[in-house]
Amino acid sequence: MDIFGDLLMGLSIAITPINLLYLLVGAMVGMVVGVIPGFGPSAGLAILLPVTFGMDPTGAIMMLAAIYYGAMYGGTITSILLNTPGESATVASTFDGYPLAKKGRAGPALVMQAVASFVGGTVGVILITILAPMFAQVSRSFGPPEYFLLAMMGMLTLVVMIGNHWKLGLISALIGFALGTVGVDLESGQGRYTFGSAELIGGIYFIPIAIGLFGLGELFYSFYVGMHRSGSGGIVQYDKEAEFWPSAHDWLSTRMTMVRGSILGFVVGVIPGAGATIASLMAYSTERSMSKTPEKFGTGEMAGLVAPETANNAASSGAMIPLLTLGIPGSASTAVLLAAFMLWGLRPGPLFMEQNPELAWGLIASMYLGNMILLAVSIFAIPLFVQIIKVPYRLLGPVIVVICALGTFSVHASFIETYLMFAAGIVGFFMRLYGFSPAALVLALVLGPLAEEALRQTLTISRGSGMIFLERPASRWIIAVTIMLVIVLPLMSRFGKSAGEAEKAGT
Amino acid sequence: MRIAFLLAVLAGGVFYTYVAFVDLNFLTRTGRLGPGFFPRNVGVLIVLLTIWALVDALRAGRQDQPDAGRWRDVIVLIGLALCFAVALRLFGGFVATVIYLAVTLSVLNRGKFVQNALLSILVPTAVYLLFDRVLNASMPPGLINILPI
């Protein structure tokens, strides 16, 4: 079947009343998750994953994916109106988004960010539609050595992007690998670190750890930094009637910015471990360096808002490619999505799109619709999200604790897992406080068993020789790309951050 | 505190590595890589890197002076969350949530009695309806059943 045929089949699955409802709910929840500062898509996905258990798998995956990319839309609203990014991928949007709002152009900034997000997200989905089948085709030739190297590529990229705290990031990843070894070893049948407990035979369950680290850990940290004390008093007011829509100049001056941001964001998103934050920073710095008036960046330049917005949404789409075609998540959010797939007995990988065409193409088709819904919601429901921003964190905090606890319990009706979630929350708080990386831990917890199995198979095939990694052409390519990314990505990210900081200092 | 946390990580790493070397075989009987291969490598790396990070932290000195005000709020929130975990087992999901929200909001949102009371009833009711009725997911049962839900 050709791509258009597959896509039409996917649309026929996505366009049912119930799936459209799930998509709308996912989009709205994603926006809300994005709007709450300190509460990113990983936390939202982990907490809401148990809520989807009663649903049909296709509808549930569509809803979870909508939460994931919807958070990118919502996160920018606080960047523009409050100068506080809703989540890390929208940090770059504060550089010019907030100055625009301060200049009285909050309305056009909000509309342009919605349009830029839509363009980035849609271009990303178009590229997924074209490229995912090709990626799946290529990855069929991959064996255990390549899978091990890809898992390492994701981990290394994530760790080097942490910057100065790379050692702590690496320790976090190793702790995740260590937790992933708990349970029965599938090759030998021997129990590892179970200490006679029946609860640990199946291993440490991913969901309580993810909910604890991202939900409770982030919440405790937000209280530590005093987010519950700072109100929404600094929120910039905007006029809903006059001066709300962007001018013709805004549209015309940013049309190529959207194209560049989308393509750059998608490419970065495909790289395991790089993600939307890096993509948005890189897009900002690229746009600034290409601009004829770089001195205007940081003072309320529309291109400075549009570039990171298109890039972070395109990156979130791009990150679906390694997830769907290799079964390798590139970020904590896609790791939670992978866990969702696995909960329904689905294992993404090279044959996933061939063996589960309804789900795979239904998901891709739903992303087109989801982006349209999000565009409409982002523009016309802004007052609703402004009201959500105004809800004090001291009221949201206890409610988040309740949802985390009851959500965790509902998965397996297990008090042990609920207590594990609370423990992970406290550990997550200290990790966040002292520069460790909860995201690296969660990613390693998911990738660990895969990496261990692949490494053991590789060394069995090669009779213990590590040279196998250099003998296979595909492995050599992956090693070369990894080395390049480990060198280039931190430099580009630093360039993007320093560009933003320089602009902020200048204002 | 940073050093204490790193020491806790180091202790965990040393224990993990000890078990990997003592209890888990490096090779299986057939000569293939055994269940201890991966944990030994991971454990040794955790110990070495944590020692390195610890040395860095000791060299940097006590830069992180604890801020009592910041810690008080987060310790109260963590303490109340842990009490909620215990209350879930004792009183079940609905009642424990009502008690937890009533106590926590009276601490965090002082003086707003009506708002706190309303939230303490409405949120658990909404969560109960969502989980128990709409999603058919189980709410934690309590050892002491005050309400028949």
The span between the termini of chain B is 43 Å
The dominant shape of chain A is: globular
- Contiguous low-pLDDT stretches of chain B (5 residues minimum) are none
State the share of residues found in helices of chain B, binned by percent. Answer: over 70%
Summarize the biggest pleated sheet of chain A. 2 strands, antiparallel
The average pLDDT score of chain A comes to: 86
- Spans of chain A of at least 5 consecutive residues whose pLDDT stays below 50 are none
The overall number of domains of chain A is: 1
Number of strands of chain A: 2
> How many H/I helices of chain B?
5
Number of helix segments of chain A? 22
Largest interface: A-B, 56 and 62 residues
Strand-pairing-aware structural class of chain A: mainly alpha
Order of helices and strands of chain B: HHHHH
Structure overview:
Chain A is mostly helical and 507 residues long. Chain A has one domain (3-231, 247-506). In chain A, 74% of the residues lie in helices and 1% in strands. Chain A has 22 helices and 2 strands. Chain A has helices at residues 3-14, 17-35, 41-48, 57-82, 92-102, 106-139, 144-160, 166-180, 206-224, 248-270, 275-290, 302-318, 320-326, 332-343, 352-355, 357-380, 382-390, 393-412, 415-433, 438-461, 468-471, 473-506; strands spanning 183-184, 191-192. Chain A has a two-stranded antiparallel ribbon. In chain A, a hairpin with a 6-residue loop joins β1 (183-184) and β2. In chain A, α6 (106-139) packs parallel to α10 (248-270) and α11 runs antiparallel to α12. Chain A starts with a helix and ends with a helix. Chain B has 149 residues and is mostly helical. Chain B folds into 2 domains: 2-60; 68-134, no CATH class. Chain B contains 5 helices and no strands. Chain B has helices at residues 2-22, 37-60, 68-91, 93-108, 113-134. The longest helix of chain B is centred in the N-terminal third of the chain and has 24 residues, at 37-60. The model of chain B has no long low-confidence stretch (mean pLDDT 88). At the A-B interface, α8, α9, α18, α19 and α20 of A face α1, α2, α3, α4 and α5 of B.
